[in-house]
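Student: Hello, beginner here. Can you help me understand the protein record under this note? Any guidance would be welcome.
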Amino acid sequence: MKLGKVEFCHFLQLIALFLCFSGMSQAELPRSRSKPYFQSGRSRTKRSWVWNQFFVLEEYMGSDPLYVGKLHSDVDKGDGSIKYILSGEGASSIFIIDENTGDIHATKRLDREEQAYYTLRAQALDRLTNKPVEPESEFVIKIQDINDNEPRFLDGPYTAGVPEMSPVGTSVVQVTATDADDPTYGNSARVVYSILQGQPYFSVEPKTGVIKTALPNMDREAKDQYLLVIQAKDMVGQNGGLSGTTSVTVTLSDVNDNPPRFPRRSYQYNVPESLPVASVVARIKAADADIGANAEMEYKIVDGDGLGVFKISVDKDTQEGIITIQKDLDFEAKTSYTLRIEAANKDADPRFLSLGPFSDTTTVKIIVEDVDEPPVFSSPLYPMEVSEATQVGNIIGTVAAHDPDASNSPVRYSIDRNTDLERYFNIDANSGVITTAKSLDRETNAVHNITVLAMESQNPSQVGRGYVAITILDINDNAPEFAMDYETTVCENAQPGQVIQKISAVDKDEPSNGHQFYFSLTTDATNNHNFSLKDNKDNTASILTRRNGFRRQEQSVYYLPIFIVDSGSPSLSSTNTLTIRVCDCDADGVAQTCNAEAYVLPAGLSTGALIAILACVLTLLVLILLIVTMRRRKKEPLIFDEERDIRENIVRYDDEGGGEEDTEAFDMAALRNLNVIRDTKTRRDVTPEIQFLSRPTFKSIPDNVIFREFIWERLKEADVDPCAPPYDSLQTYAFEGNGSVAESLSSLDSISSNSDQNYDYLSDWGPRFKRLADMYGTGQESLYS
């Protein structure tokens, strides 16, 4: 087996250590000058052990057991009467002892990193009696370390960050490697650090493992990430030491070291003059190589003739400058604007101000494009007033609009009828004069809000809108009236001068100084002996009694006419009638009953009895109605007159029929001959069955008699019809008679015509066309035979 250079060095070290310690372990300590001691009965002898602390190298790879050391007692004379035994950690399993000589050997490979020492107990026994000749004693076997563990980075791989443009020597991160070897013995656990990859940008301190920057002005925009490889080597970095590596990823964080710059020195944009306020005109952006907060921008307009017309704001997501309109554009007033816009970093870093100003400017030119604009009114709102008494056709006011374009096209006016549905107003199409078209009523609508349309004569699609608010001025055109429908009562035991009702009035008009009403009794009611009226001078009046002893039997209701006058100019008046009922009242003056009929009812008839009587009457009425209805149904005739024109009746059969093969569906002769009288009657309550075996008898009538008889028969049928309405009605019949010069255009009548058409081939088409073959073929005469 060939050994490498490193393994050969390790082998030489092991041999040197083995030779050193084997001599120590085999050397016996100076023996005690005392006599050996035995323990027998009560006598005792001083102990005479000779032992030492043993050392053994770890990772022994030999084929024979490794000699550890030797135990010897002064009692042992070498005659084989003493035997040695070993107990404790690893006894018999790892360590064995020669019971005759006391030699100790290790039978297994030892690893100091697993267990650094073993504590064992040794005892010398008499071979014959198996009794101890010496007290049991402890000793320690220490495992001697060799450099068999390389340094390890337990926290690797590492990630770290450092700001760009950092000065040389800026600390980045500290790496730490651990070595499992014994740090108290030799240099096996003494580690030094070095950098294998990442130079010349970074360096590492050999003893501490601190990584630092090695170059100044490292630019994130050029390269933002570096991968370092760090090595840790034991034996103080000497040849033959073991080593381990880890990776460190270093990311350069951004600093604000790049000023913003516009890609172009000037921009130009075209916008139509019709663009509404707050619309976006353009987006511009200054480039900044930085990222995040270091690339945040601020834009402002620093110069130009559009400072009040445009404004610029920043888009937080894209860092773009957004130019928007603040005022309406007018091509006729100004055709272009020039803006000087500045972009600057929001937060500049003072360390890099020496690199230049952290702002930039550009020029933006905005060209206003002409568009065909609708007419513009001279005022956004026209307030007008008109009296509700004004005559139809009177002028209320005038609106004016003009075409703002250079062409100055003539303008025509109209009213948006969606805002004037009742068409109260008109407008002159040329002058814009608004006049009344109907009588106005303030009480119906006090304010009319109408929209006036102004359109260009040359381009009617261009329409402007103006708004007119017409207020209707009030006049005194409504008479006062009662404020409500009063339910006035007077007790039979009322005293003279007692107030029985307080009344007030309302007026739909709204005078500027408020309402003032005057109350009085009419001339006819002034001298009545029952009631009087007192005007309270506060738009109310009180109704008082003039006498006592009102009796319902004599008069249960009184009607008192009251005259009300308002304070308008001219004043208006109205007469309102107050209905006063005489009632029976309790001791507190509360009305109990006001019906005069209550006196004629039997004294013992209660409310429950009245309800029972009414229920019986309603039940009888329902029974009578049911009987009458059933009798009318029984009188209804069950047959219908076949003489009626077949075209007047629609008979519904819930049968789909048999198609061309169905010969029992209807009688074709009934449709061919409308000038015949049928004698047969058909029951309405029986399903109609048309028989084709017996041919009905027809009676020819002269054409001039057909219509007269037809009308006469229909008249008699209507007179005797129980279902006919009990009032005069118009009967319409679609009957034309016969003998038309043009003759019939229907094929249904072709059976009796002298047509030369031959339909015999229908018989060859199968049973589905049998009916047509019988009707139109040569054998049609035998159909009714």
Summary: The CA atoms of residues 475 and 710 lie 70 Å apart. The helical segments are 5-26, 607-635, 668-672, 703-720, 770-776.
